[in-house]
Fold Putative ABC transport system permease protein.
Amino acid sequence: MALGPIFRSTLRNPTGAVLIALQIALTLAIASNTFYMVKQRIDKMNRDTGVVNEELLTARVFYFGATVDQKAQADIDRKTLMDIPGVKSVSYSNSIPLGGSNNTSSLCFEQEMNDGGEENCPHSPSYYRSDVSFHETMGLKLLAGRWLNESDAIDSESISSTASRTMLLSDVLAKLYFPEESAVGKQLYLGGRPLTVVGVYERMLRPGTGGSNPDHTILAAEPQTSGYLSIRIETDRIEQVKAELEATMVGLNDQRVVSVIRTLDEVAERTYRRDKAMVVLLLGVVALLLVVTALGVAGLVSFTVANRKKQIGTRRALGASKRDILGYFMSENFAITATALLLGGFLAYALNQYLLQSYQLSRLELVYVFIAAGCLLFISQMATLLPALRASRVSPAIATRTV
């Protein structure tokens, strides 16, 4: 690479090279942060719910009849639905993974929530309330202890705020609260109420999608009679049951509304619609930036070739080969691009620092700067290739002409 002639040539007319270098640097800063945000969104959409998505059918159930014995009706619902071929388990709960109806409360080591600050109440998990078959309906995996049973079930409306209850913790929460020992048998306080940990399950996502702790969840045996109805069904029967569910439920009791009947895969699809749209938008912006940058590079090199035709012809007349001319322009572009990418790396981290402080995004990983830099270097070289090939075809006779 003939850096001396390239450097001197650039100094004689630096405006175009400086503008293109700034464009490449800004594109790198934006593209690297965008690639990182896209990766985070994709990871969010692909994370494991911890439940058997493909087997779950969900619905919202609300009563409008004041005289309905909801507890008795819930028992009838379960029995009727369990008699349907292909149905494995049925549960009512206050929410479902990715369902959006998120109940949270501070989980503390001591009963007095105001004592000790964050050390006493370090996390606020999502709180699932359902019957003792909920783990079977969701397809959860037990890692330690036991599942909840009928002796653990309580009426959430009549239970005393000081009475001890039992609960299951997600494995992530169990490790956070008891990193050096088993969580089973330990007592914690949820909103001031004592809860004894009887088991630990592998994981289950929160109902909401926001926040940085998606699998901070607990499960208690508080049977529900409305809210979310979840049915675990053999996959080849799920569409048929879905088509007949509303008629079946209203036929059992017409003083209620049964709506939003979806498989859990459909729930996830709708929950992540905005994330998918954001990924498409961000990638579209980056693609546009890369196209504009490529056009800018190609335009600069074409302009340079047009202005240097006589100089190129002179070099050809003095013995420079087509390959030498091609290599010169490719090397010149490489030097400008490499300088721009070095500047762009600093700009990328400056932009990331602003995003960290303003929008609580995570710190940019270096690999995404290299990925964006590699893309820009390749695009810049490809944009240079065509005008550089035209330059290599300039005839030595051009040197004898008067421009």
Remarks:
- The first helix runs from residue 3 to 12.
- Residues 53-270 form one domain.
